[in-house]
Amino acid sequence: MDFVPQREQMRLGKNFILKDYKMVYPERLKFKVNHYNFFLFVDVDSQRIEGSAKINVTSWGPVKLDAIHFNISSVKVNDKPYEYKYDGKNITLDVQGDNLIEINYSVQKPKTFKFLKKEDIIEACNVGEVMSAPHWIPVIDYPGMKATSEKVIKVKKPLIAVSNGVLVKRWEEGEYNYFHWLMDKPHSAYLNSVAVGNFSIFEEEFDGISLQYYLPKGYEKFLWNLSKTKDAISFFSSYTGVKYPYNKYAQIVLLSMRGGMEYITSTHLTYQTLHDEIAEMDYSSDSLMSHELAHQWFGDLVTTKHWSNIWLNEGFATYFQALYYLHSRGENEFIYEMYMKLKDYLEEYKKYSRPIVIGYYKWGEELFDRHTYPKGALVLHTLRSYLGDSKFKLGIKNYLEKYKFSSVDTEDFRKAMEEVANEDLTWFFDQYVYTAGHPIVNVHYDGKRIKIEQTGDIKYDMFLEVRVMKRDGSEKILTIEGEGEVEEEGEYVCLDPKFKWFKVTNDMQGEEMLIKESRDKDIMCKINAINGLTRFTSVKALSALGELLKDEFWGVKYESAMALGKIGNEEALKYLTSIRVEPSKARRGVVKALGEFKYSQESGEFLANLLKDEKSYYVKADAIISLGKIGLTRFKELIKSYFEEPSHNHVISSAVIESLSYFADDDSFNFVLEKGIRSEVATIRATAVKHLWRFKDPRVREILRVMIKDESSEVRSAVVNSLSELKEKDLLIQIANNEDEDGRIRAAALRAIESEK
């Protein structure tokens, strides 16, 4: 009988690979693109692109270009008409050697090129990443192939056009403006971009780099949101040992964008990152700004060869954003940022698990998940902790310099790090990158014997610091490899006080030891103690959690508040309502926790009174949601009264919609239908659709059927959430089979269908 080790059984994870998933291998191409030259007329009025592409290729077999829903007027090779095949997705030509392919075409309302006119704002821009460029330019959309590019963009006056690289020339002809942009460094096709609009433009020089900021009309006062750009460039250049690789960096803020996209030298950012001083209490643009900027090194300079290795782009940018926080905000903020990334990943882990690098998938977009972003960052953090910061930095420099302007896979990264580490790292990558799951560690201590045990399906190699606190106030640091037991007397222990290793910690010490640990100097010791204390409901345990609401660090206050909400008894409620917790980021934990006290008059009254004087948009939004969760109908009119209140990213209006969904009555449904489903704001519509499943109204299914076609991918993604809850298999199948739908949305629909089998 064959024996398959547990690690091999668990390697691919659970619930990610579906029945019709196949291994996706890197492309076997028989040609290379050397240079793209595009002429593009972006017609905002008709939402149309007219293009001419001249593509310099070297081929030793058929040339197959991605071009989706094009109207092709002619194809030439070396200036002569040439036979080609086109199936609506690909243009195929049988050519050999060095050739210049010319394609003249037009595209009407391309899926990944958005056109918008709103009040004084006019914009048109490309969005997306995987199979995005082929909707508006003919390219080989394989990240493993890099080429230089240039674009001449024609737009109607007074609009301007921004693209990659340097502006070679700008001129006027009649009623049109022309812009010639040149990107003379090789890059993957998905990194091409165009943004057209009547922007307000700000420019400055920094360290030989032209920094450009393009803001929508009327948003000029928010330029300060991006003020840390120069500091972040300096930090990334210093930390990696590789200066910013280009001579321009533009940030274009767009109403059509969700999130951000790191097009080479020309990042597109969502307008939702812009905010006022009140929002700054809880929200910062630094995260998005630094993440997208980090991509100029990780993703643009060095690019994943294949989507299965996308963590080399996204996991790295996510971790370097956190490292920027370490630089700009200090150690506690960095540690808590990494802990929040752990919690973020664990939310997805409840649904499915997979290795960070996996070849089994159906759509490249579905790999842009929490296994790629936060888990990828946590694994890099663990590698840095294992090697030490100095070696890690040298390894990163070696990796970037060795593979600059190239495409790579994870093995290239491993070997680059090994060259600096002077040791084989196969074990690390096998366990943490190529295997699904994560370490789960239980900590036991009786004052004399420390026991560290791994309880997950797989045993991991780990090097864990254990700090033993002595009765005289001194401490002793021990290192335990993997798991084991050791004799050492003390008051309590703290596992991994600086959160150096990616894992889930279950602190199983007794109540008295956890209370002492809750007073530790390190925030991770306090957080471990907080999580452990939720096993108890005694006055002493609750008192310890209550004291932590006064801690110096906001993250500890937040975690303590959430723990009190989890315990959920009257004593916990007293602590949550006894003091005003500052700052607002910590207070959000208090108001969220109060939502756990179902039908509590005291909790409801506290939230209602808080709303009267609260300044923070986000605290107000969380308080409104909690009022809905509490479920007392006497607060329903109060909840509704906040719908029209302005807030950053419409968080208060969206909170009202979600809050009313918990009542699930006819009156609330009519409000959600009128104010939510019919809203012109995509964020509000998405919130309404996401929570619509709670209502038993017979119109719900028909509404969701219509919203499948909403122009916003945020809304369509929310539709899948409600359809999944309602088990509406036929509508989910319709979404999964729509070849023009975003791959992440199709994958979510398909996964929902499979979960019902």
Structural class: alpha+beta
> What distance separates the N and C termini?
31 Å
Q: The biggest beta sheet, please?
A: 8 strands, mixed
* Overall 3D shape: globular
Low-confidence stretches: none
Radius of gyration: 27 Å
Note the beta-strand portion: 15-25%
What is the fold-level CATH name, i.e. the topology of the domain at 33-294? Answer: Immunoglobulin-like
Task: Spell out the blueprint of helices and strands.
Blueprint (H helix, E strand, L loop, with lengths): L5 H5 L11 E2 L7 E13 L4 E12 L3 E4 L4 E7 L2 E2 L3 E2 L3 E4 L3 E12 L4 E6 L2 E6 L19 E11 L3 E4 L2 E8 L2 E13 L5 E4 L2 E7 L2 E7 L13 H12 L7 E7 L5 E2 L4 E5 L15 H9 L7 E3 L6 H19 L1 H19 L10 E2 L12 H14 L1 H15 L2 E3 L1 H12 L4 H7 L7 E6 L3 E6 L8 E7 L5 E7 L2 E4 L4 E4 L8 E4 L3 H7 L5 H11 L5 H9 L6 H14 L2 H9 L5 H11 L6 H13 L3 H14 L5 H6 L9 H11 L4 H12 L4 H9 L9 H8 L5 H14 L2 H8 L6 H13 L2
Helix pairs in contact: 2-3, 3-4, 4-5, 4-6, 5-6, 6-7, 7-8, 10-11, 11-13, 12-14, 13-14, 13-15, 15-17, 16-17, 17-19, 19-20, 19-21, 20-21, 21-23, 22-23, 23-25, 24-25
Could you characterize what this model shows?
This protein has 757 residues and is of the alpha+beta class. Among the domains are: 33-294, tricorn interacting facor f3 domain (Immunoglobulin-like); 305-432, Neutral Protease Domain 2 (Neutral Protease, domain 2, Orthogonal Bundle), CATH 1.10.390. 37% of the residues lie in helices and 24% in strands. The chain contains 25 helices and 31 strands. The chain has an eight-stranded mixed β-sheet, with no helix packed on it. β10 and β11 form a beta hairpin. α4 crosses α6 (374-387) and α12 runs parallel beside α14 (570-578). It is globular and about 85 Å long. The mean pLDDT is 97.
